[in-house]
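can u do me a favor
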């Protein structure tokens, strides 16, 4: 009786019905894999809550899709066509975020094909890889900063701070210049990566000696990338 409940109304005698227990096991493994991927993303990237939910749910969605196709070529083509009609209106993300989405999809596909152990092994290897490479990311250590420096109008700001920047920063770039106080002041904005967070105050003190002790602001980097 239970088998008849989960049998499709269009199924024929040649089609194997997936047992309910097997279905639940695959979905549970897919959700577990998705949670591991979402946890990895949250540890090494600044991502939104909705993106983490997507990473957690995507393997289960892919898994169920593959199980429902169940070797039917016609259903597989129809499914591919349906997915091709979907227009994702999410903002474009970084290469790392796109890779995480593909990881979620591939893991779900492996689970849907019935290779549960391979799915867990593959996900574990890729998550370890993401965690290991994340150590090299300047954002993890808080070294990437946005610097705003106010200078008087009579100061030639081009090259005025090059020596200090080269001493305390791995890399830096002047991103914006704007006037303030009826043109009496200039406000400069830099994107930079510090060499050492412990020398942050020393870095600011050196800048103060060159801008006439006017306002200086050093904050975590502002990202211009669209958020997924």
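np, heres the sequence
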């Amino acid at each position: 009786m239970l088998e008849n409940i989960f049998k499709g109304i269009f199924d024929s005698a040649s089609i194997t019905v997936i047992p309910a227990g097997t279905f639940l096991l695959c979905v549970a493994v897919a959700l577990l894999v998705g949670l591991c991927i979402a946890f990895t993303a949250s540890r090494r990237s600044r991502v939104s809550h909705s993106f983490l939910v997507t990473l957690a749910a995507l393997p289960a969605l892919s898994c169920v899709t593959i199980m429902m196709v169940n070797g039917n070529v016609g259903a597989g083509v129809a499914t591919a066509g349906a997915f091709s009609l979907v227009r994702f209106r999410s903002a474009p993300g970084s290469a790392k975020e796109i890779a995480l989405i593909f990881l979620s999809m591939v893991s779900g596909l492996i689970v849907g094909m019935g290779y549960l152990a391979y799915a867990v092994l593959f996900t574990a290897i890729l998550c370890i890889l993401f965690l290991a490479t994340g150590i090299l990311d300047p954002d993890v250590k808080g070294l990437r900063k946005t610097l705003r420096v106010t200078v008087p109008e009579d100061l030639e700001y081009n090259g005025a701070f090059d020596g200090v920047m080269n001493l305390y920063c791995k890399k830096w770039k002047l991103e914006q210049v704007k006037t303030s106080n009826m043109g009496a002041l200039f406000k400069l904005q830099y994107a930079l990566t510090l060499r050492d967070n412990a020398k942050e105050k020393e870095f600011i003190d050196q800048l103060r000696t060159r801008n006439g002790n006017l306002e200086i602001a050093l904050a975590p980097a502002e990202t211009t990338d669209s958020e997924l």
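Residues 2-134 form one domain. hope that helps!!
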